């Protein structure tokens, strides 16, 4: 408009930003400038000089009103909805519940809105039983923090096999688009650091823990919330007064220092050692849990740092139990005469090698030799096939090693093969951080070749013993004698719970410790059921994509009835379409019992879950397990089913693994018998 068009009482836009003003007086100051006195919408009287250059932005307000109704109604509604949603949390304290695609249960709501959200900053362990839906709780927490503008940058760290599952659940249930960290994307990032670029990110635990370059990049970032899934893997241990920190634990310390909120999620937070639990909690508060508590002085108070609810305490909104009953039974079997003879021969060999290992100067080498020997003992309990293959591989590798030793020592002056000391080689302790596939392969290598023999004559004698043991094991394998399999076969065929209404085998998961036994069981079960497609397997060597495919087959294909698995399927896998499980081999870590059972005893399970633990009578480790299960049954009845929470107290001073080794090495010693009886009710 032109300056000449501005008159008294006119309503003009463009004089004041985003306002319509009313002109009170106008005075030309020459031909190209105009002095204007006007009132604003707040009735303030102001004065301003306008020039020809201002004309393009000046205009009359339509109808003389400071507002109008001619804007796009769709855009107006969109804007008001955005403002409403942005402020909704002030009026709806559970906004994430009402905007997500989930129907949370009472314990999930209480975890998020009573236990976690009120804590500022949040440093917390969410330790509800496996299968209680902790991923849903984490998703609700993340959504609520985002809605309340209390978090923008969020990092989820999970085992490699679970990152895709996390991404899918965050997208499908909460509409949150998380990216999965990859080295390719990191290399293509313009800023050279994907951690800085992405606000919502999921990363693989071991990829971060094992790569110093990625940790250097993490040090350059800050986060509002970091979530660790399967956080019990962030372990550290006391050796005397010294602390041995794993790479995963150090990663937890690093990210804990880079974030305001830290959430550790695990269904098995306590491994039975109070001092290790204290180290785990130091990830949340390093000052409070600094140093080692004096033995027996006190236990860690976690009431303000951890929420743990066992399945027996979880209820629906109507007050009924959320989870069906879980029933554990022990299947005892007696070894045949040939199997018993092999058991005693291998156990004597293991005891003798332990005594030789005690003479080694290096504690590290002692530990590695001890690990190799206990692995042999566990394979002996697994199956004739497993111990035969293990003895064969060990004899072959020690024989090759002996030839190399002789070749290396040939020609040395004054050397006699009977008295020359050999190098055992660089020993290392079992790496708890290895992915399941690498760990199974590494354990097989250690069991096959690590020895306490220090001279050529000692190694030759050990090989002669192994040849005899191998021949005994081979004869049992060829004879087809296997009382353990006979008992499982009877269980599969004669147990009513195993059959559906049509007489078909119900969906069943069988856990074993070793791939040799897994392959052996698959062949046996296929022969029993008569259909190769009825049995699928998962072990550490199965690639992640193939593992997911096998899980989907077991869940959805009616022809697939049995899954045989190692502990590669023991964490983060949802298989509640089955309600039957057999522990063909028992783990020497009691937490794995709950991790395994948690695969079927999960939210959504409607059937009573049955677990059968197979235990060999008249063996030392079998006696320990039998007495342990008897004690757990007494505790279960006394505590209303909370059987797994008592395991930490049972093994607080010595782990189950240590007790089993004691039973194997010193089972005849009355003092050892007394200690074992005190812990698990064991008697010879």
TrEMBL record:
Q: Which residues form the Helicase ATP-binding domain?
A: 115-287
Question: Which domain of life does the protein's organism represent?
Answer: Bacteria
Which controlled-vocabulary keywords does the entry list?
ATP-binding, Helicase, Hydrolase, Nucleotide-binding
Annotated GO MF terms:
ATP binding; helicase activity; hydrolase activity
Return the Pfam families for the record.
Answer: Helicase_C (PF00271), SNF2-rel_dom (PF00176)
Domain named Helicase C-terminal is located at 487-655
Keyword ATP-binding applies = yes
**CDD domains, alphabetized:** DEXDc_RapA (cd18011), SF2_C_SNF (cd18793)
> What SUPFAM superfamilies does this protein map onto?
P-loop containing nucleoside triphosphate hydrolases
Q: Which residues form a coiled coil?
A: none
| PANTHER family on file | SNF2/RAD54 HELICASE FAMILY
Q: What is this protein called?
A: DEAD-box ATP dependent DNA helicase
């Amino acid at each position: 408009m032109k300056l000449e068009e501005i008159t008294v009482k006119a309503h003009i836009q463009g004089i004041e930003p985003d306002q319509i003003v009313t002109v009170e007086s106008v005075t030309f100051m020459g031909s190209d400038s105009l002095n204007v006195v006007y009132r604003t919408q707040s009735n303030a009287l102001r004065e301003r000089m306008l020039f020809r250059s201002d004309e393009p932005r000046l205009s009359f307000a339509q109808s003389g009103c400071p507002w109008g109704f001619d804007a796009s109604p769709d855009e107006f509604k969109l804007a008001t909805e955005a403002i409403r949603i942005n402020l909704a949390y002030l009026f709806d304290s559970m906004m994430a519940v009402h905007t997500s695609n989930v129907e949370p249960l009472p314990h999930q709501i209480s975890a998020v809105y009573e236990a976690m959200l009120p804590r500022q900053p949040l440093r917390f362990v969410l330790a509800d039983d496996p299968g209680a839906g902790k991923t849903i709780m984490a998703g609700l927490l993340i959504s609520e923090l985002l809605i309340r503008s209390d978090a923008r940058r969020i990092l989820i760290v999970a085992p490699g096999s679970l990152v895709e599952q996390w991404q899918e659940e965050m997208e499908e249930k909460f509409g949150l688009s998380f990216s999965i960290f990859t080295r390719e994307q990191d290399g293509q990032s313009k800023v050279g650091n994907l951690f800085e670029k992405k606000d919502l990110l999921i990363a693989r635990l071991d990829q971060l823990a094992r790569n110093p370059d990625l940790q250097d990049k993490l040090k350059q970032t800050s986060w509002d919330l970091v979530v660790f899934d399967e956080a019990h893997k962030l372990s550290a241990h006391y050796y005397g007064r010294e602390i041995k920190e794993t790479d995963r634990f150090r990663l937890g310390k690093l990210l804990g220092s880079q974030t305001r909120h830290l959430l550790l999620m695990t269904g098995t937070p306590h491994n039975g050692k109070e001092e290790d639990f204290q180290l785990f909690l130091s990830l949340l508060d390093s000052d409070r849990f600094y140093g080692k508590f004096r033995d027996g002085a006190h236990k860690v108070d976690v009431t303000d740092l951890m929420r743990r609810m066992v399945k027996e305490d979880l209820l629906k909104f109507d007050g009924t139990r959320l989870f069906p009953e879980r029933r554990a039974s022990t299947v005892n079997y007696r070894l045949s005469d040939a199997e018993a003879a092999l058991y005693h021969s291998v156990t004597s060999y293991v005891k003798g090698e332990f005594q030789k290992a005690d003479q080694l100067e290096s504690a590290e080498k002692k530990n590695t030799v001890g690990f190799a020997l206990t692995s042999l003992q566990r394979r002996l309990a697994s199956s004739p096939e497993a111990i035969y293959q293990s003895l064969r591989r060990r004899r072959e590798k020690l024989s090759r090693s002996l030839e190399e030793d002789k070749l290396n020592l040939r020609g040395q002056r004054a050397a006699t093969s009977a008295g020359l000391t050999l190098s055992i080689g660089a020993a290392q302790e079992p790496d708890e951080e290895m992915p399941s596939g690498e760990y199974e392969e590494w354990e097989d290598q250690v069991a096959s070749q690590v020895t306490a023999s220090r001279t050529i004559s000692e190694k030759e004698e050990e090989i002669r013993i192994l040849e005899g043991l191998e021949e005994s094991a081979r004869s049992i394998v060829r004879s087809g004698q296997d009382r353990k399999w006979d008992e499982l076969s009877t269980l599969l065929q004669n147990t009513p719970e195993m059959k559906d209404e049509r007489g078909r085998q119900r969906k069943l998961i069988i856990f074993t410790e070793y791939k040799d036994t897994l392959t052996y069981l698959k062949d046996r079960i296929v022969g029993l059921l008569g259909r190769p497609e009825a049995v699928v397997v998962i072990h550490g060597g199965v690639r992640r994509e193939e593992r997911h495919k096998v899980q989907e087959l077991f869940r959805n294909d009616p022809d697939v009835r049995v899954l045989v698995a190692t502990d590669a399927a023991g964490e983060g896998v949802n298989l509640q379409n089955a309600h039957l499980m057999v522990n063909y081999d028992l783990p020497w870590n009691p937490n794995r019992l709950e991790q395994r059972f948690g695969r079927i005893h999960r939210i959504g399970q409607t059937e009573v879950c049955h677990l059968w633990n197979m235990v060999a009578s008249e063996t030392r480790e079998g006696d320990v397990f039998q007495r342990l299960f008897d004690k757990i049954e007494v505790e279960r009845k006394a505590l209303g089913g909370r059987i797994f929470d008592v395991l930490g107290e049972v093994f607080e001073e010595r782990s189950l693994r240590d007790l089993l080794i004691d039973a194997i090495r010193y089972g005849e010693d009355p003092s050892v018998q007394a200690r074992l009886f005190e812990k698990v009710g064991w008697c010879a």
